[in-house]
Amino acid sequence: MSVYRIALAQMRAAPDPAVNLRGAIAAVEEAAARSARVVCLPELFRTRYFCQREEAARFELAETIPGETTEALGAVARRRGITVIAPIFERRAPGLYHNTAAVIGPEGALLGLYRKMHVPDDPGFCEKFYFAPGDLGFPVFAGPSGPLAVLICWDQWYPEAARLAALQGATVIFYPTAIGRLREETEAEGQAQREAWRTVQRGHAIANGLYVAAVNRVGFEPAEALPHGPPRADKEIRRPGAASEPAHGIEFWGGSFLCDPFGRLIAEAPEKEEALVVAEIDPGRVEAVRRQWPFLRDRRTEAYAGLQRRFLDERPA
């Protein structure tokens, strides 16, 4: 189990999906040039974060798998011998869509899919309108030196998902993400959320004795009709002496990072800039840490039946 490099492509989304795909291809090329064996792109990287509003015309942004994105990234993966994790708005069938990550191997072939299992429905994050919950479970995929897992954004908050990935042999979990602060929230609220986001993922690394790689987008994206439909009547606010600004939107906070099985930060991207984070994964480190902290050994599997129920005031039939 040899040491290898991974790359995390923290990107700023342009309004044009073609521009974003070209940016992703450039990031894969740079990752390969810097000797990375795996590169992960952010959640829904082809477009701006369209889930800020419910608008049926936005289903036109979806694509099939295989499709344009997997074909383009498969070609560069094959040419550069690199594994690519490509999050895609998947059109599975008429009226059936998923928030999906396609894992493309170094020969350019599709290794498999992960469909986001936990789908949020919060102000500014109207994902249940667009995405059916995943139905593929929590698979692992062949990596350069042992299995890797892919979970997506809201999955970050669920210890069960990380644990099931670890139980299938994953030594690293990639979390492609689109998360940030709503414009109407304060900077302090945003920083508190960002720290919670980082802390819970570092906790997954510690509890499971593996690496965690979180890949976020960066920049402000307004909650406007994009790219279909009329603009909102309330899309701008005016302050005395200031130019008009969007009233609603998300400040994506970047901060993509890799942490080791002790939860220690190995590498981190800035909050407000695009960046390609390249860092090393040492699968032998997973073995060493789990020997010291044998959480998997000491699990009491016979005592966890309650986890299969929504809440423990429910009684089995």
Strand content: 25-35%
H/E element string? EHEHEEEHEEHEEHEEEEEEEEH
How many strand segments? Answer: 17
CATH superfamily: Carbon-nitrogen hydrolase
CATH class: Alpha Beta
Low-confidence stretches: 228-242
Stated plainly, the CATH topology is called: Nitrilase/N-carbamoyl-D-aminoacid amidohydrolase
- The strand line-up of the biggest sheet is 5-4-3-2-1-17
| Helical run tally | 6
The tally of structural domains comes to: 1
Structural class: alpha+beta
Instruction: Round the Cα radius of gyration to an integer and report it.
Output: 20 Å
Helix content bin? 10-25%
Summarize the structure.
With 317 residues, the chain is α+β, with helices and mostly antiparallel strands. The protein has 6 helices and 17 strands. Strand 7 (146-150), helix 4 and strand 8 (172-176) form a beta-alpha-beta unit.
Care to describe what's here?
This protein is an alpha+beta fold and 317 residues long. The chain has one domain: Carbon-nitrogen hydrolase (Nitrilase/N-carbamoyl-D-aminoacid amidohydrolase), CATH 3.60.110. The protein is built from six helices and 17 strands. Strand 2, helix 2 and strand 3 form a beta-alpha-beta unit. Helix 1 runs parallel beside helix 2 and helix 4 runs parallel beside helix 5.
Q: What's the topology here?
A:
Blueprint: E1 4-10, H1 17-33, E2 36-40, H2 68-80, E3 83-93, E4 96-104, E5 110-115, H3 127-130, E6 140-143, E7 146-150, H4 159-167, E8 172-176, E9 180-182, H5 187-208, E10 211-215, E11 218-222, E12 236-237, E13 245-246, E14 249-253, E15 257-259, E16 265-268, E17 275-281, H6 283-292
Parallel strand pairs: 1-2, 2-3, 7-8, 8-10
Antiparallel strand pairs: 1-17, 3-4, 4-5, 6-7, 9-14, 10-15, 11-14, 12-13, 15-16
Helix pairs in contact: 1-2, 4-5
